[in-house]
Amino acid sequence: MSLLLWMMACSHGDHTAHGDHAHTDGHGDSGEVVGEVQGTLISPAEATDLDPDPAVLRVRLQAAPATHTFVDWRDGSALEVEGYAYNGQSPGPTLRARVGDTIEVELENGLDEETTLHWHGLHIPYDQDGVTWTHAGVAPGESAVYRFTVDRAGTFWYHPHFDVKYQVDRGLYGALIVEDPAEPAMDGEQVAILDDWTAAASTAVSPDDDHVHGAHGGEGLWTVNGQVLPRLEVAGGERHRLRLINASNSGYLWLEWPGQRRIAGDQGRLEAPDEAAGLLLAPGDRAEAELLPGAEGFSLIDRPYAFQGGEAHGETEARLDVALTAPGAAASPTAFAWGGAAPTPDPGFTDVLYTLQGELHTDAWMINGEVFPDITVQSLVLGRFGIVEVRNLSATEHPFHLHGMAFEVLSVDGVPPVYRQMEDTINVDTHQVVRLGVWADNPGDWMAHCHILPHEHEGMMTVLRVE
Ligand code: C2O
Ligand code: CU
Asked: Do 396 and 358 meet the contact criterion of CB atoms below 8 Å apart?
């Protein structure tokens, strides 16, 4: 297929599956988008649905080694990474379903190490969660089938939960989108998965690493869907949904753009639109932006962010340019049915306390002084509203992530949010205390960990049992 056709087929996020692409990196068919011209943003190809039932999405994902080539059109340089891909592409195929659908994924392991698939942010049965705490991983050459239903609209993602620090860093991840057919339609939608790359294997967050110590906490060249600073073309007057996912191992994004408007977070639509300037996307976080282009193009810029406290150093860089095919009068925002719900009042008790501890200089990272898997399992009672308090005792920030159940943010340093705020990953600032409410309706042994993957790897993970 020519690149043009491929882009037309893939860039508008329709419901048809497109899986017949053989491209080996984020640039479409290899070799076609090489050079010193800015590429047009290409949403990752969608997975082919192998099941005729419209309420069932059945796909096959093969994890295998792949070479990724990232061309920086700004200076013509190219970065080659010996990495991994799903079905030959990184980001992997986008899985697109609707609320209530069943998703069935057959994973084929073409790597020479174990792997699994974890469904980040989804409320699914424990034995489908893709963790190796009480289940075996998928051995090289073997396959496994994951099956679950999706009950909440939003932008989720999938990635392995075995040797995560390495496997995710090498390109194993993709978007999982759950649509709500009752939502008003927009003119277009794009998936934008951000990641940062170096040619070297994943490195731990270390005080000696300039990149980490510098601007964004990342490790090198930032890409959007494997493209360096691509251009999104829209017409003035249109409404677009941009689904942002931070898939980086340890890189923070602090994004800003004119007319900034966020309509959804980790767990789907917000209770009210958020028009604050500056959007922090810590590793593992997602957000949906509503773009309302008018007379002029603009850029999504990424400001330096000091996730280890203190002053932020480094450069502000554009990550995505939004260019106009034709200017127009900016449209009014989409008329979503905003809930406007107030936060649940904090009941005051605490069921589970997690302290985040660690030392940059020793690279030892712990929860409650314990290093995974030598941990104490704490529990919430099935069917109750449980309270988890997370205290960051370290001098660096940590995106705290809980599997299996979303949580409500009850307060941050004692201050409740203005609206009800549902998340599955929340960045906990240095020396901050966050209180989270969990409707413990999903029995299982749920991983709770830092989504800075080198921290998780070093042991900053524990298990929250719901029984
Ligand atoms: Cu996205 Cu346990 O992680
Ligand atoms: Cu951490």
From this structure: yes
Provide CB contacts within 8 A for 161, sequence distance 6+.
116, 117, 118, 129, 130, 131, 132, 447
The verdict on the CB of residue 284 being under 6 Å from ligand 1 is yes
Evaluate: CB of 447 within 6 angstroms of ligand 1. yes
Please give the tally of structural domains in the chain: 3
* CA–CA separation, 25 and 31 (whole Å): 10
340 part of a folded domain: no
| Whole-structure pTM value | 0.90
Q: Ligand 1 mean position to 407 CA, how many Å? A: 15
Residue in 172, 145, 175, 167 with CA at minimum distance from that of residue 241: 175
How far away, in angstroms, is 403 Cα from ligand 1 center? Answer: 7
- Asked whether 357 and 394 are in contact (CB, 8 A), the reply is yes
As a whole number of angstroms, the distance between CA 460 and CA 264 comes to 28
**C-beta of 292 in contact with ligand 1 (< 6 A):** no
Q: Which of 182, 203, 228 is the last residue of a domain?
A: 182
Question: For residue 435, what are the domain limits?
Answer: 352-466
Question: Is the CB of residue 449 below 6 angstroms from any atom belonging to ligand 1?
Answer: yes
Segment 143-171, tens digit of pLDDT: 999 999 999 999 999 999 999 889 999 99
